[in-house]
Write a structure and sequence with these properties.
With 137 residues, the chain is of the alpha/beta class. It folds into 2 domains: 11-69, 2,3-Dihydroxybiphenyl 1,2-Dioxygenase, domain 1, CATH 3.10.180.10; 84-136, Roll (2,3-Dihydroxybiphenyl 1,2-Dioxygenase, domain 1), CATH 3.10.180.10. The protein contains 2 helices and 8 strands. The strands form 2 sheets. The chain has a 4-stranded mixed β-sheet, with helices on one face. A 4-stranded mixed β-sheet has the order 5-8-7-6, with helices on one face. Helix 1 runs antiparallel to helix 2. It starts with 10 loop residues before the first strand and ends with a strand.
Length: 137
């Protein structure tokens, strides 16, 4: 049996579009998605907010991304201080991830060979989340 290890997982907050964004990521990354809505849970939210996401977990490969919708009245500012970085084992996998996740977003650095010898691309997706996709040659 494998001994448990400490992990660090990104947790994203969305302004009411968590379900849409996490479903997009699930399809783009071919992952498994679990979503828990506010409906039926003891957290007090307005009636029109009950279908929003209280917690979501996306698993793909050995990676996990968690997310939720912000609480009502809580502003969301993605900023530019953080990015999700995916290190793929093959160039084909990295190209697929880059193409799928960047769809509808803003490409900052196209996916191409870099001076440090890797294939790399950087973009902000259509939900305002920054991503880096990398693969060694």
């Amino acid at each position: 049996m494998k001994e448990p290890t400490t992990t660090l997982n990104p947790y994203l907050t969305f302004a009411g579009k968590c379900r849409e964004a996490m479903t997009f990521y699930k399809e783009a990354l071919d992952g498994q998605l679990e979503i828990l809505s506010f409906e039926g849970n003891p957290v007090e939210v307005p009636e029109d907010y009950k279908d929003k996401v209280m917690h979501a977990t996306l698993r793909f490969g050995d990676a996990v991304i968690m997310a939720a919708d912000a609480m009502p009245g809580q502003p969301v500012d993605h900023g530019n201080a953080n990015a999700l970085s995916i290190a793929c084992t093959t160039i084909a996998e990295a190209e697929r991830c880059f193409k799928n996740l960047s769809s509808g977003g803003i490409i900052i650095m196209p996916f191409e060979k870099t001076f440090w010898g890797a294939m790399f691309g950087y973009f902000t997706d259509k939900y305002g989340v920054s991503w880096m996709v990398n693969s060694e040659e």
